[in-house]
Amino acid sequence: LPTYMIPTAFVILDRLPLNHNGKIDRHALPAPETVVSGTAPRTPVEEILCGLFTQVLAVPGIGIDDDFFALGGDSLLVMRVLAGLRSALSVELQVRAVFEAPTVAGLAVRVEEARAGGLGPVRPPLVRAKRSERSPLSFAQHQLWIVDQLAEPGGYNIPLVLRLSGQLDRAALEAAIGDVAWRHESLRTAFPSQDGHPWQRVLDAVPELTVVGTDEEGLGTAVKEATLYAFDLTAELPMRAFLFALRSDGPDGPGEPGEHVLVLVFHHIAIDGWSLAPLRHDLALAYAARTRGEAPAWEPLPVRYADYARWQRDLLGDAADPDSLMSVQTGYWREALAGVPDELVLPADRPRPPAGGHRGESVPLRLSPELHGRLLTVARANQSTLFMTVQAGLAALLSRLGAGTDVPIGTAVAGRTDEALDNLVGFFATTLVLRTDTSGDPSFLELLTRVRETDLAAYTHQDVPFEQIVDALNPTRIPGCPPFFQVMLGLKNTPDDEAGLPGLTTVPDPAYSLYGLGDAKCDLLFGLTESVSADTTPAGIDGVLQYASDRFDRGTAESIAARLVRMLEAMVADPGARVSEVELLAPEERHEQLEKWNATTAWMSKGNLAEVFEARVAAAPDAETVVCGETRLSATELNT
User: Cellular component per GO (predicted)?
Assistant: First the structure.
């Protein structure tokens, strides 16, 4: 068998479980246990690395020969390992080091080489500093502060919508929300300005919980209205809290059983998608404490967001200094994005509106557990991640659909390059442009290798904010899209914090996921979320394709989503096949386009066109035949 098809684990069964059709019941198959070597560390560095691997992967007993990616590692977790090494050993390694040496034993060698020879300066430590009267914004915050003034109300809101079932203590919930806001200063920071220069001002206030009675029929409209709240960033909290109590639950009052929907609305300037997990964790802990009549007892956060904003500027340095990190990384992006296409040719139904359309709609996208597992197998066999593998498939699809062989795809990364930021709520995410070369009709494996090299270089140079790259390179602007790209890919593969509120069933509303919500920020956004079962086996990938409805019809978006699935299925079925060899048309599409549309059978068996029309008029004389504005003609009137 090829390497990618060799099983990594075996399970012995007395017999295979069958379903009622006599076929193998895949859902009844027991999942293989994660197997680790357990080989003990031999040096202090290996011991530290074993601890870091265990911490970030949540897999006990990791030995020095266990592969980081085979145990579930990805690029985000790689950043956490590197941050841990920086903190524990004052060593600066690049992302590439973990991909090239993914075991504890191999990475320990890289660490020792770095300690002996020095592979670049260690970053300045991120520590809590004395508060200044006017703290600067981070680069990302400053750019968002500018564009928010031109956006539609609610255009940059991030909602968290949770359905709560059971005995709810409203007073405890409101107190817990206040606890969380007090813990994370970004949730109570306003941004006043003077002469066009904003600064951070932390308010001594927490959001009130607005309780609204409604029913299931009116719930959707009420929630949507809440999520579109227009924040005044200059003076008010960037967070609002709503509790929708379904009227069928009974009379109002604390502690009543029933259904509620909690809606927390944040402005993006205060939070990003990766912040929702620590926020939910802290909310659950605070609610549990408040129901006991206590204040939450949690570990103090090592830094505040204002500390990060100052540290970011110190880290990057002066753009005028050729040796600064800002200059070095901007230089990389200047070369990496030289000659990037101004605009991809996409299978749109309409031209781009002159002013750029922002109306967004979405269609569902689903990868089965089987496809999910096979994508992981191909990724791990080629020292890549699931994201890289999906990106390769998407680039191949876009190229086949007419986008050319130079395919830039945008993606968001967490931007949490220091371990002090792991549990902090704030806006750290940034955007990377991943430029994929599909020229020469490569095989999927060749394309995946290209994607891997491009992505590793991009991850290494992710410190300079996207906004600074845009300012420095000044690319051609395309209305309705970010600079450099018109297609985005997002893959959420960090598990949600499932800590629910005690005594309640807490279920996030999928209709308000980060992907597919609100205005279209580009032509096509593929937003995917990876799921794993309780035993850590692949459970499928769910998501949406959000599309700019001013350019694409729903049917076109559905076709693009279906073709991505077919491309990925072909990729895992034969990774050695070339991109051009994949059949993108479904059988029904092939029949329609090659047979139905190409049919040459005469539809008029006898008579001429005038005679056929007269027969139709006789058969239905009053049928509405012509419509133009308010004018309507029946068949008889048209024939008069």
Answer: cytoplasm
Residue 361 Cα distances to 431, 479, 557, angstroms: 22, 18, 9
In sign, the C-alpha dihedral spanning 338, 344, 345, 350 is negative
Distance in angstroms (rounded) separating the CA atoms of residues 249 and 260? 9
CA separation for the pair 99, 491 (Å, rounded): 19
Q: What is the CA radius of gyration of the chain?
A: 28
Strand, helix or coil for residue 530: strand
SS3 category, 411:
strand
**Single-letter residue type at 364:** P
> For residue 468, what are the CA distances in angstroms to 166, 485, 594?
48, 16, 49
The two domains 135-306 and 362-417+427-495+510-593 share their CATH topology (first three levels equal): yes
CB 64 within 8 A of CB 48: no
pLDDT at residue 21 greater than cutoff 80? no
CATH architecture designation of domain 3-117:
Orthogonal Bundle (1.10)
Structure tokens at 123: 């970053």
Element (H, E) at 177: helix 170-183
CATH fold of 135-306? Chloramphenicol Acetyltransferase (3.30.559)
DSSP 81-109: HHHHHHHHH-----HHHHHHS-BHHHHHH
Residue 382: half-sphere exposure toward Cβ, Cα within 13 Å: 29
pLDDT level of residue 2 (50, 70, 90 thresholds)? very low
pLDDT tens per residue across span 159-179:
999 999 999 999 999 999 999
Q: What is residue 593's predicted lDDT score, i.e. its pLDDT?
A: 76
Q: Is the pLDDT of residue 99 over 60?
A: yes
Paired tokens of 99: 């991909």
- pLDDT of 38: 64
User: So what's the pLDDT on residue 253?
Assistant: 46
What DSSP string describes 291-350? HTT-----PPPS--HHHHHHHHHHHH--TTSTTSHHHHHHHHHHHHTTT--SS-----SS
Partners of 289 in beta bridges: none
Measured distance CA(549)–CA(383) in Å, rounded: 37
Read off the amino acid at residue 117. G
The tens digit of pLDDT for each residue in 560-602 reads: 999 999 999 999 999 999 999 998 887 787 777 777 777 777 6
Centroid of chain to Cα 124: 29
Q: What pairs with residue 366 in β-bridges?
A: 542
CATH of span 362-417+427-495+510-593: 3.30.559.30
**pLDDT score at 117:** 74
- Would you call 127 exposed, middle or buried from its count of C-beta atoms within 10 A (0-12, 13-18, 19+)? exposed
Flag whether pLDDT at 610 surpasses 50.
yes
Domain chopping of the chain, boundaries: 3-117, 135-306, 362-417+427-495+510-593, 609-639
Over residues 22-40, the mean pLDDT reads 60
**Beta bridge partner(s), residue 541:** 367, 530
pTM, two decimal places: 0.82
In 3D space, the residue among 303, 51, 266, 17 whose CA is nearest the CA of residue 161 turns out to be: 266
Q: How far is C-alpha 336 from the geometric centre of its chain's CA atoms? A: 23
Closest CA to 245 of 253, 235, 234: 253
Nearest to 550 by CA among 403, 360, 364: 360
How far, in Å, CA of 396 to CA of 443, rounded? 10
DSSP summary character for residue 432: E
Say what percent of the chain tops pLDDT 70.
89
Dihedral angle at the C-alpha atoms of 550, 553, 556, 562, nearest 10 degrees? 100
